[in-house]
Amino acid sequence: MNSYTIKKLLSAANETVIVIGTSGVGSELLEYFCSKEKPSVSIQVFCESDNFLFSRSLISDSFLLNDRISFSDLIIDQRKIINFDLSNNPMQIDVQICYLDIPTRMVVIDGEIYVNNWVLFPNNNYTKIDEENESYDELIQYKKLMLDKNVGRKYSTPYKNKKGEVTETIELFDEERIRRGIFPRSSFYDSDFIKLVVWVYIFDREGRLLIHKRASNAKDNQGMWDKSVGGHADYIQDVDTSKTVPREVIEELITDENIGNQFIKTNDSDILFLGDWRYDKRNTYPFEEIKNLKDKWVFFKLPGHYRTTSPRILPDGSKKNNEVIADTYLFILSDEISLESLNDFKNSSYMLIKPSQLKTVYDRSKNGMKVDDIFKDQSPKFTPDLEYALTSKLRKHLNEFSKVISETL
Predict the structure, then answer these.
(1) Cα–Cα distance between 316 and 319 in angstroms, integer?
(2) Where are the beta strands (DSSP E) in 239-303?
(3) What angle do CA 69, 71, 74 make, to 5 degrees?
(4) CB–CB of 232/216 below 8 Å?
(5) Any idea of the CA torsion for 282, 287, 288, 289, to the nearest 10 degrees?
(6) In a 3-state reduction of DSSP, which class is residue 253?
């Protein structure tokens, strides 16, 4: 059976090249990119993800092997490819990081399939697979799935976007809240992937809930009233989601995170976490202490979590589903915050309202009734997340927290 190097295969390409898996062949690919000999050739490259390479290194980086290969060794070829500057290259080159496992490394040259079986070490020996091979049909399907926008392309992204920003990745969880991998943010929409998020409901010291109206040019949920703050957990920065909350509050309430304002500093030193909120245990304590923390922002966590769908309504009216596990936090502002001072928060249009009143506004608007006697909008729309808060068991906790604050602070 004939064996081909990727260099030889690339030199024979006339129209299209598809490379699935680049470890061990990065140098040859870069040499081909730099040659610029065939600018008409269209090239699609799927690099292995960091997670995949780390998993492979658990076998290849062993003291039982004479020539062990570490994770750092495996990353080198990937980094060569994904960091290569393609901006001035005349060839049509599309380089993606594939966040799916790559069971078989493959090169497709003008429709002809060549595979490379990597067991312990990446190598540069490709074997041609023709129609008589029993694996041919399956490999054709595999190639088709990898190129499909709803499968392989959905879970593959460039290392950096057109603005030069590194692609944002999010930790994936299963229904049991067990971590199952890292995937691009965009791949979570309209999929069964579950991400861990925080929902933050912010109250002033009169028990009024802070809500905000999304901009008319927002990427989704345009012009809708939404919960105080929301965001996803960062698996690099956050030990647990209580560490996520101060960062998300700062990011969403302050226009310029490097400046801050008179009410909050960006180093979160004025934000105190006071543990789980349990009404039967904490309906008065530690509120006596909070009375003396007039310049501090404090927050509690609701025990457990909420598992739900958090849809995004697009400008054209279509909907993207977004599966989440939400850790929910109840926040109390410093006593310096008022309706007037909300104008200092430039990121959105804000309003303070009792949860019970907000529920009335929601119910009336659903029934086509006027609400302008208690609300600034005549025909308000609510995001799916805020609707969920007003129609699920979460509403009980919001009403409960609001009442305790208004009666004790």
Answers:
(1) 9
(2) 271-276, 297-301
(3) 70
(4) no
(5) 110
(6) helix
Q: Residue 225: enclosing H or E segment and its boundaries?
A: strand 225-226
Rounded to whole angstroms, how far apart are CA atoms 245 and 141?
44
Q: How many CB atoms lie within 10 A of CB 217?
A: 8
Residue identified by tokens 């609707």 is 387
Domains of the chain and CATH, by start? 3-157 (3.30.870), 186-408 (3.90.79.10)
> SS in 3 state form for 57-119?
HHHHCCCCCCCCCCHHHHHHHHHHHHCCCCCCCCCEEEEEEECCCCCCEEEEECCEEEEECCC
Instruction: Give Dmax (Cα) for the chain.
Output: 82
Residue 75 burial class via C-beta count within 10 angstroms: exposed 0-12, middle 13-18, buried 19 and up: middle
- Residue pair 257/247 in contact (Cβ under 8 Å)? The answer is no
> Per-residue confidence of the chain (409 residues) as pLDDT tens digits?
578 999 999 999 999 999 999 998 988 999 888 886 667 889 999 999 999 999 999 999 999 999 899 999 999 889 989 998 887 778 889 999 999 999 899 999 999 999 998 888 888 999 999 999 999 999 999 999 999 999 999 999 999 887 788 899 999 999 999 999 999 998 999 988 999 999 999 999 999 999 999 988 888 999 999 999 999 888 888 778 988 888 888 777 765 444 444 444 445 567 889 999 988 876 666 787 888 888 888 999 999 999 999 999 999 999 999 999 999 999 998 887 766 666 666 667 888 999 999 999 999 999 989 898 888 888 899 999 999 999 999 999 999 999 999 988 8
Strand partners, 272: 298
Residue 344 DSSP class = G
Q: Could you give the C-alpha distances from 374 to 356, 358, 398, in angstroms and in order?
A: 11, 9, 19
How far apart, in whole angstroms, are the C-alpha atoms of residue 49 and residue 155? 11
Cα dist from 331 to 50, 244, 278, whole Å = 37, 13, 14
| pTM, two decimal places | 0.84
Whose structure tokens read 């600034």?
376
Cα dihedral 42, 168, 325, 101 sign: positive
Q: Which residue has the tokens 């929910």?
A: 328
